[in-house]
Design brief:
globular
Length: 96
């Protein structure tokens, strides 16, 4: 499994617009084959900080997601609402 965190600091005046557009991305991504979980989370301490937390079956599923119509259309729009570029990290779970 591949886990992804994508942290964005959204311009305060863009939060509502960001969340509305991100909702489309979340719904369509959850419907993709290979998606295990996909959510948008807002910081309790700082409402400008948002983090997508995603779980994908494998790297092929991530590649397919990254090439999807909704991802390639929506991601640049969300990025333009940020104060700084997104901090995106990919993880593999260490199993015990």
């Amino acid at each position: 499994m591949i886990k992804i965190t994508a942290k964005l600091i959204v311009k305060e005046e863009k939060i509502d617009e960001f969340q509305k557009l991100a909702g489309e991305l979340v719904r369509k991504s959850r419907a993709e084959e290979g998606n295990v979980s996909y959510s948008l989370n807002q910081s309790i301490q700082d409402p400008k900080i948002h983090c997508f937390i995603e779980i994908w079956k494998d790297e092929e599923a991530v590649e397919s997601h990254n090439a999807s119509e909704h991802f390639t259309r929506i991601l640049p729009q969300l990025g333009a609402m940020g104060e700084v570029p997104a901090d995106i990290q990919l993880f593999r779970e260490i199993e015990y």
